[in-house]
Amino acid sequence: MNKRVIESLIKCGAFDSLGARRSQLMAVADKAMEAAAATQRDRAHGQVSLLDVLAPAGKAARQAPALPDLPEWERAQLLAGEKETLGFYITGHPLSEYRACWSSTPPSRRKSCHSMPDKSP
Hints:
Helix content: 40-55%
Number of strands: 0
Oligomer: single chain
Strand content: under 5%
Structural class: mainly alpha
Radius of gyration: 23 Å
Shape: elongated
Largest sheet: none
């Protein structure tokens, strides 16, 4: 996997089940890729860490670095990432916040919206 694939998976929410925010994962993606590449290089050269030898089978010898304390991206940015990578929205829709306003608008007024030009008041 390359950096672009990892970033796309983060943007579309594929790692949301891990409990970390997308902003945190994007912040450490470069470091994680570098660490994975270094580990892969060491294994290819036959180098083994003492921690790897002493670790119980199936457990990681190295601890993952702590995630930075970053706020989650704005909802619009989360949705834009999903749309960019998948072509559709997963966690919501940009217009869902206007649902109450739209449903409280009388039907006679809603019909006139179709004939209005874009971005009109």
